[in-house]
């Protein structure tokens, strides 16, 4: 499908304004494929016609549908498993020691898509149930996509989705098979809640988080927007908490607010207040 430069720019600017994500030239191809269902539903034959409709008053739902369709909701259970396995093996024990007095953990999965990441955390805690007896565990999953959040809240996944990342024992222990897929046990997902939220907005919770997962979200931001996102993450994270990024993301050259957590891949922690002052003076 041919896309005029003017239409491409309008759609790219719409996505950036609503989500902060950049529809780069390399992702231009997604316009035709991602919006194909909207074309069919609306009887639209080309992108120029779609752009004309987007600029008309009263097309709020169409604007929302276009933005939702362009978002990349790719996710699966225990994505980048070696990185994910660091949590129960190394990060959870540290947090358990640091929060032993209040026996409460608050975790934020930012850009959680359809919820597999947050539910993966719930499974990890369920697999260590004895160690966390008497603790309050609160996992918050957020995403800018209302459709994705609806799926996440349901805890219901297709056969294909549960096979991506889950072992057979995990499927059988934490899900029930239904006629249309697999339903996660309510007892397992009881520690998880979801809400729609833009990572560029103020934190979704007043209390600082002990652990934040923001994986494969920053890849779609330009430099200034990525800086803004890091600012938000830093504001939301406890001074002694941890931040996990995606395998292809880093803080190096992106922000001075975080540093590598003892050389653990993809795990970072806030730079101390004194270190921040030293870096500012050196800069």
TrEMBL record:
* E.C. number: 2.1.1.80
Query: Origin organism of this chain?
Result: Altererythrobacter arenosus
Q: What is this protein called?
A: protein-glutamate O-methyltransferase
Keyword set for this entry? Methyltransferase, S-adenosyl-L-methionine, Transferase
Asked if the keyword Transmembrane belongs to this entry, the reply reads: no
State the source organism's domain of life.
Bacteria
Q: Which reactions fall under this protein's catalytic activity?
A: L-glutamyl-[protein] + S-adenosyl-L-methionine = [protein]-L-glutamate 5-O-methyl ester + S-adenosyl-L-homocysteine
Q: What is the lineage of its organism?
A: Bacteria, Pseudomonadati, Pseudomonadota, Alphaproteobacteria, Sphingomonadales
Query: Does Transferase show up as a keyword for this record?
Result: yes
Query: Per the database record, which ranges form the CheR-type methyltransferase domain?
Result: 1-259
* Signal sequence interval, chain numbering: none
């Amino acid at each position: 499908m041919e896309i005029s430069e003017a239409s491409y720019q309008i759609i790219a600017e719409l996505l950036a304004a609503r989500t902060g994500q950049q529809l780069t030239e390399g992702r231009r191809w997604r316009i035709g494929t991602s919006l194909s269902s909207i074309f069919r539903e609306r009887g639209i034959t080309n992108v120029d016609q779609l752009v004309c409709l987007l600029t008309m008053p009263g097309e709020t739902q169409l604007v929302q549908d276009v933005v939702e369709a362009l978002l990349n909701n790719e996710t699966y259970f225990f994505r980048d498993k070696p990185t994910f396995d660091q949590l129960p093996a190394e990060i959870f024990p540290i947090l358990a020691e640091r929060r032993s007095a209040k026996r409460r953990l608050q975790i934020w999965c930012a850009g959680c898509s359809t919820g597999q990441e947050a539910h993966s955390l719930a499974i990890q805690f369920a697999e260590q149930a004895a160690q966390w007896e008497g603790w309050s565990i609160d996992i918050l999953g957020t995403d800018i996509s209302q459709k994705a959040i609806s799926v996440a809240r349901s805890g219901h996944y297709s056969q294909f989705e549960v096979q991506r990342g889950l072992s057979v024992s995990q499927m059988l222990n934490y899900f029930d098979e239904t006629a249309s897929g697999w339903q996660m046990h309510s007892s397992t997902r009881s520690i998880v809640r979801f809400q729609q939220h833009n990572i560029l907005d103020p934190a979704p919770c007043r209390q600082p988080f002990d652990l934040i997962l923001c994986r494969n979200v920053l890849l779609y931001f330009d430099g200034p927007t990525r800086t803004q996102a890091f600012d938000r993450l830093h504001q939301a994270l406890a001074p002694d908490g941890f931040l996990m990024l995606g395998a292809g993301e880093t803080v190096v050259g992106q922000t001075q607010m975080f540093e590598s957590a003892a050389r653990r891949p993809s795990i970072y922690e806030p730079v101390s207040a004194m270190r921040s002052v030293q870096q500012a003076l050196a800069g």
